[in-house]
Amino acid sequence: MGSESIETIPCLDFSIYDSRFDQGSEEWKNMSKKVREACENYGCFILMYDKNNFPCENMLMGMKDLFDLPEEIKRKHKSDVPFSSYNGGDSPTIPLCQTFGIHDAPIQDNSLAFTNLMWPQGNPTFCETLKAMNTKMVELHSLILKMILDGYGLPKQYNSTIEELKYHSSFRFMKYKVPEINKDCEIALVPHTDKNTLTILCQNEVQGLEILTKANKWIQLDIPQGGFIVIVGDALKAWSNGRLHAPTHRVTMCGDKERYSFGLFTIPKEKVKIEVPHELVDDKMHPLRYRSFKYGDYLDYFVSTLKENALEAFIGV
Ligand SMILES: O=C(O)CCC(=O)C(=O)O
Ligand SMILES: [Fe+2]
After folding, report:
1. Is the CB of 196 under 6 A from ligand 1?
2. What is the value of pTM for the model shown?
3. Which of 59, 72, 235, 253 has the fewest Cβ atoms nearer than 10 Å?
4. Could you tell me if the CB of 102 is within 6 A of ligand 1?
């Protein structure tokens, strides 16, 4: 055996942290430092939550019913927002994966409109669970982004930047099919970085998410029940002058059980300029890596080129 140690993604216990948590306390500062370090070193971490606060089990149950609906009903979900319409698993980038994206679902009408489109007879349980899950996940995004600000010791004036970085959200449902019988394992979602600000995902008991480390090694995540995975996206990486890492990740399906995951993706306001805070730039260790940009322009660029290194190509100094 070699002496190489296997890297593990940090696991942070957030069960006592909510929006009412004392943000000046030592505990808060310690956790902010751990969040910052995890996001710098890995671009992701596992977050253990209080099960009483997040209706994950109910959401996973509801989404099984959603994916069991007839294809012609699911196809009714169409959206102008990129990657949000129903995708039935026939895309080359997501060969085994079916997805729905609901843009700005916390706005009550969007959750209701989506539910009523899928279940014209109504499905109040699904709708209420979606709204509750959304609200809680948006709160968690705010908490983590605040911790990142505090982890860098940035002044409060940047709170408004956080608001802009998480201005929109997309709630996404994913179902991964089992690989064909003659295949052991199959890539179900091709390697990519998330283009948004921050992603928080929850899954059923079937693992499959893999992260490429900075040392260029794929590691399989083992996300426990009661845990989310938090992933830094390109927009947050750019804002942080590349100090936070946006990890390449993929999903590999093995075995004979379907995988379900859902997540909330926060997305910057399209028209606002994303600009690296001057506090995160210095001549020696952290020279400026990214020019300021409008997020909407970056997304257009990515959608039209689908370049793997879109961020560097678009705004790299
Ligand atoms: O399903 C997962 O665990 C990962 C999904 C993902 O990476 C994405 O939708 O961007
Ligand atoms: Fe992703």
Report:
1. no
2. 0.95
3. 72
4. no
